[in-house]
Design brief:
The protein is of the alpha+beta class. Helices cover 32% and strands 34% of the residues. β8 and β9 form a beta hairpin. 11% of the residues are buried.
Length: 151
C-alpha cells in the first residue's frame, strides 16, 4: 500500500516539477542567423522566469569576446558590446538558473557577414579628387619659388 501511495504522489508532482523548468522562447540573433548589420546587443528570452545569476558569454573561434554589460530581467538576459563585431562565426552561450533552481545552458551559433560598402570606396575617391587641386597649386607654387631664387 505504501508503494502505491508513493507512486501516486510522484506522478501527481511530476507535472509541477516539469513546468518549473524553462526553455528559450526567442533570441537575437537567432540560431544559425547571418547578421548583415552591426550588432550591439544580444538577447535570449525564456518561457519562464530566470534567476539574476544567469550569464552570457560570446566566443569567436574559441576566443572569448568580452561583453560590456549583461542585464538579467525576469525572463530575458541581454549582453551588449560597444565595439562592432567583425565578420566571422560566433557562439553565444547562455547559462541560467530557472526559478526552481535548475541550472540550464545552451549555445546559439551565428555569423556576422556585414558587406563592405561601395560608399567607402566612393568617399576615398572624393577625398583624393578634392586634394588634387591643392596638390597642383602646391607644386606650381614650389616651381615659382624655385625660379625666383637666385643661383
Amino acid at each position: 500500500m505504501k508503494k502505491i501511495v508513493f507512486l501516486i504522489s510522484v506522478l501527481w508532482m511530476l507535472p509541477f516539477m516539469v513546468s518549473a523548468h524553462t526553455t528559450v522562447s526567442n533570441s537575437t540573433p537567432e540560431e544559425g542567423q547571418a547578421i548583415k548589420e552591426e550588432l550591439s546587443s544580444m538577447k535570449v528570452e525564456f518561457a519562464g522566469e530566470i534567476e539574476k545569476q544567469s550569464t552570457l558569454t560570446l566566443k569567436q573561434n574559441d576566443t572569448e569576446i568580452p561583453l560590456d554589460s549583461i542585464t538579467v530581467n525576469e525572463k530575458e538576459i541581454i549582453g551588449t558590446v560597444t565595439t562592432p563585431l567583425t565578420n566571422g562565426s560566433y557562439v553565444l552561450t547562455w547559462k541560467i538558473a530557472a526559478k526552481d533552481g535548475h541550472a540550464m545552458t545552451g549555445d546559439i551559433p551565428f555569423t556576422v557577414e556585414i558587406p563592405e560598402t561601395k560608399k567607402t570606396e566612393t568617399e576615398e575617391t572624393e577625398v583624393t579628387e578634392s586634394e588634387a587641386p591643392k596638390l597642383k597649386e602646391s607644386t606650381e607654387q614650389s616651381r615659382e619659388n624655385t625660379l625666383e631664387e637666385p643661383h
